[in-house]
Amino acid sequence: MYQYDLIVIGSGPAGRRAAIQAAKLSKKVLVVERGGHVGGVSVHTGTIPSKTLRETALNLTGWRERGFYGRSYRVKQDIRAEDLRRRLLITLDHEVDVLEHQFSRNRVQQLRGLAHFLDAHTLEVKKDDGEIMHVTGQSILIAVGTRPHRPETIPFDGEQIIDSDELLDIKELPRSMIVIGAGVIGIEYATIFSALDTQVTVVEPRETMLDFIDREIVADFTYQLRDRNMKLIFGQAAETIEKLNGKCRVTLKNHRVLIADMVLFAAGRMGATDTLNLEGCGLKADNRGRLKVNPETFQTDIPNIYAAGDVVGFPSLASTSMEQGRIAARHAVGAPAQEPPQYFPYGIYAVPEISTCGLTEEEVQSRGIPYECGQALFRETSRGHIMGLESGLLKLIFSLKTRRLLGVHIVGEGATELVHIGQAVLNLKGTVDYFVENTFNYPTLAEAYKIAGLDAWNRMGEAQKSA
Fold this sequence. Notes:
Blueprint: E1 4-9, H1 13-24, E2 29-33, H2 40-44, H3 47-61, H4 66-69, H5 81-105, E3 109-119, E4 122-127, E5 132-142, E6 146-148, E7 161-163, E8 176-180, H6 184-195, E9 199-204, H7 215-227, E10 231-234, E11 238-244, E12 247-252, E13 257-260, E14 262-265, E15 269-271, E16 305-307, H8 318-332, E17 346-348, E18 354-358, H9 361-366, E19 371-377, H10 382-387, E20 393-399, E21 405-411, H11 415-427, H12 432-437, H13 447-466
Parallel strand pairs: 1-2, 1-5, 2-3, 5-16, 7-14, 8-9, 8-14, 9-10
Antiparallel strand pairs: 3-4, 4-5, 6-15, 11-12, 12-13, 17-18, 18-21, 19-20, 20-21
Helix pairs in contact: 1-8, 3-5, 3-6
């Protein structure tokens, strides 16, 4: 009855994982991608480029060695935008090659073009050469991702007033930059450019940033940013942004005026659903272009149409998008997935990194759970001394009643790698005793888990004595 068992619109993390999962279940799968290459936002303008830019910046600046050699230490004295772009292109070419090979190996068919719905089972695809094709699928997965939110009041010019996608194509590194928005994307790029010796000012209308992260971790992170002379302005919105005499001028609502070489507007993203003709299949997106789904199956209100990845909203992580795509694909082809582990990690690739898994201290308090915390500073470990680390914090939260780990929160070098130890213990319902009794390689940063575990164990003993 239908040409395909599953049609996937978009080839980012959610789309490609869904397509390969369905293909491995011997289903006929088509991926429709509007871009010139597979990979979606994740490969071409989001996850991979920003992390490549970060790694290149840290390598060329010698950032990781400054604990030994001082803040003036540099590996390359004159870093240019072309130096960053060179490594970026090599990485992107490799990623595209790997994805193309995965699709080919699993016999996933591909079609380049812009898709929109004619009905719940039929898509019209306008190919790059102008040809129009109609394709039908028993199930359809929308995995089109997002694009930067671009208010009409912002005079974007692609050179000095830019969004996060355009940042990758800048011709010169700015001496000064104003970042509008202290979300994950804004903070990642703000700290990367700060590491490149750009004078950075962050403007955020809310009174805080990264609200889903443990407040103690955010406080430590904020201190590190201010310690290297980043300006953080909270509780103030940008009222006007304009170009004046070759500079960018930002006027805040409190009438404060900021001047810089470049403005990065990173205040939110929009689901890229406006070209899909959702009315044709009976769906409607919210005011940010996102789709509502069943969080267990990722079905939309139309039973045979699914959505996964950034287009369904928070947490908008590549890792969770992949899992959403896999679950959606299995359900769509009649092979329901097992319930995924309860806890998954968040990773923020700022400088320094932040990663977290499980409950924050604020969430534990709101649930009325008696608890205790243990902490370790990276500089307390031998590995931290060897690496010249002056900062870095690992925080563990335990239940006083069951002794179980409730949350792990890390800020510092390697945080996004280290968090997986805590994630495993969380999902396996481990207790503080695991960290106290376990042996870790020496010297490693992972030893911080033992230090934090012992800290919590001692405090829990004192709490029980007083009880």
